[in-house]
Amino acid sequence: xxxxxxxxxxxxxxxxxxxxxxxxxxxxxxxxxxxxxxxxxxxxxxxxxxxxxxxxxxxxxxxxxxxxxxxxxxxxxxxxxxxxxxxxxxxxxxxxxxxxxxxxxxxxxxxxxxxxxxxxxxxxxxxxxxxxxxxxxxxxxxxxxxxxxxxxxxxxxxxxxxxxxxxxxxxxxxxxxxxxxxxxxxxxxxxxxxxxxxxxxxxxxxxxxxxxxxxxxxxxxxxxxxxxxxxxxxxxxxxxxxxxxxxxxxxxxxxxxxxxxxxxxxxxxxxxxxxxxxxxxxxxxxxxxxxxxxxxxxxxxxxxxxxxxxxxxxxxxxxxxxxxxxxxxxxxxxxxxxxxxxxxxxxxxxxxxxxxxxxxxxxxxxxxxxxxxxxxxxxxxxxxxxxxxxxxxxxxxxxxxxxxxxxxxxxxxxxxxxxxxxxxxxxxxxxxxxxxxxxxxxxxxxxxxxxxxxxxxxxxxxxxxxxxxxxxxx
Length: 474
Prior knowledge:
By secondary structure, this protein is mainly β. It has strands at 8-13, 22-24, 41-44, 48-51, 58-60, 72-75, 81-85, 100-103, 108-113, 127-131, 138-143, 155-161, 170-179, 187-190, 197-202, 206-215, 218-219, 223-231, 235-240, 246-251, 254-260, 267-272, 279-282, 288-292, 299-304, 315-319, 327-329, 335-337, 344-348, 360-366, 399-405, 408-414, 420-426, 431-437, 443-446, 452-460, 465-473.
C-alpha cells in the first residue's frame, strides 16, 4: 500500500530544555494488541463465516453455529481460530434453541453446552470474548440475556481454558453472575493502560451505563454514569472507536454519541444525533461514525466526527434491506452490515471518505451459500487490526522530533504527503489529542502537558495505521 504522510505539529506546554528520541514500537493504547490478528475470523448467523487473514474477505462454510444476533469468535495472534460461541440458547425457538462454545474443529468444546447459562443468542450483543489480562490461556465469555427471556439473565460470564483438552480448550465455569437489570447491549473497550478491558453495558429502563473493569484480579465493581436517554428492552449497539475515546449507543428511536474516558470508565458530553441509530460502527481512523436505522426506512448515516457541528455533518449514504442491521468494522478497513435471512451482507467499502464516496453496497459480500441473521461478531474495540500493514513492516516517518518553540514543546512528524490522522498519547496510555492533518505543520496547543514520554500514532488517508513511535521531550 502507499504511505500517506502526515505533517504534524502539536504544542505541549513545557520548559526550556529540549531533546528528541524516537523508538520504534509495535504498541500504544492496546499495547499488546497492535500486531495481533485476533479478530480475523468471524462466525455469525446461520453457519456463516468470513476469514480476513489474506487481507480480503473469504467466505467460510465450516461453521456449526446458528445465532439470531449474538456471536463472538476469537483467534490467536497469528489469526488462527481458537473458538467461537453464540452466547446461549433462545429457549422459545425451535431453530435457535442451542447454545454452545465450539472449538477450532467446529465441535462442542468440553463442557461447552451453554443451556442454563443465562445467555441468549437473540440478545443484541450477547457474546463478547475477553482474554484474561493476567493469563493468556484463559478467556471470559461475557453474555447478556434477551427480550424473549425477559432479560432475567443480566450480565454473566463463562470461563474458557485453552490449555484444556489437549489444547482444544475446555469451559471451566458457566453463567457466573455479574449484574442484573440491563439491556441486551454490550461493548468491550480497552483500558488506558493498554492491558485491561472495560465491559460496558446499559441499565434497563434508565439512563445508566455500567462499566466493569476486567483485570488480572478478575471483574471489578461497576463504574456507573447516569447520562443520555433512558433505554428499554429493544436497544441497538453499543460501539466504541478504536482509540477508546468515544462511544455510540442507539435504539429505542435514539442515536447518542458520548466521550469515554478509558482510564476511569466514565462517559460524558452526551450528543443527541437525532436519528434512530440502531447499528453503529466507527471507521478505522475514528474520523467517521456510521449508523443504520431499525426497520422503517433502513437508511445508513455518516457523521464527520471532526466537524465543528457533528449533527449537521450527517449524510445519508444509502439504504438497505436490513431490519436490525448490526455494523462491524473489519480487518480490511471496511464496515460490514448484517442483513437478516440474506445470503449476502452489506459493505461500506470506503469508510474514510465523505458522503456517498464511502460507497455503501447493500449486497456487498456473498456468504457462499450461508445466510446472515441480525448480528455480526462483537470484539473488544482494539482487536480489529489491518492484516497487511503491521507497524514493523512499513516505512517509519522521515522525521519525528520534539523541539522548543515559543515556550512550548512541539512534536512534529513528517513523511511525505498531507492527508491523514494523528493521535498523541501520554506514556500511561491516556489520550492527549487526536485530529485530522490536512496540510503541513498542523499545530495544536495542549495546555498543562509538559516534558515527558509520548506516543505518536499516525494513520494514512485510508485509515490504515502505519507508524507508532515514542518521542521523548525534556
